[in-house]
Amino acid sequence: MDNVKDKREYTLVPALAALGIIFGVLAKAGDVAIQGSFFGNILSSFGMVSSRLFIWAVICTAIAILSPNKIWSAVNVFLFLVTMLLAYYLYSHFIVEYLVWRVVKFWLIMLIPSMISAFIVWHIKTIRILKYVVIVLGTAIMIFDMVKEAILIAMAIDVILYAVFLYLVLSKRRP
User: Fold this and answer.
1) Residue ranges of the domains in the chain?
2) pLDDT tens per residue, the chain (175 residues)?
3) How far apart are CA 96 and CA 135, in angstroms?
4) What is the pTM of this model?
């Protein structure tokens, strides 16, 4: 059974890398999208939401929870985030022609606590109190994002993401 899980995990690696690249490109394209057309408005809305912390917390929580073990949860979150950051900043550098190295360095350093967090979040499957700590932290991040920038579309997306977040955290998954 473990061999099947390992094979499945190795097939997940390119999928997470591709997902990271897609999210990175969409996030940066959304940051610089010009509103006025349907596509421009949608892209701009995604850029607004992706500039906040909650969407990334939900995605990384999902990756950590759905990973087969605690090591893979850290590896998977790292892989997703590093490919997302690479795509985001390569797009920024080559397409937008704007890049601040100080910001890039900050987010690269933040990969380490993200991996540690994924390792810890994976344990909500077996440690009940940790499940509630994750819910409280996720709720605090969502509320902070909503208060910081009270834009109706972003708030609606946060509510949808919060429902997904609660479903993931509260669902019964075996380690």
Assistant:
1) 2-170
2) 456 556 666 788 899 999 999 999 999 999 999 888 888 888 888 898 899 999 999 999 999 999 989 999 999 999 999 999 999 999 999 999 999 999 999 999 999 999 999 999 999 989 999 999 999 999 999 999 888 877 888 888 899 999 999 999 999 777 6
3) 37
4) 0.90
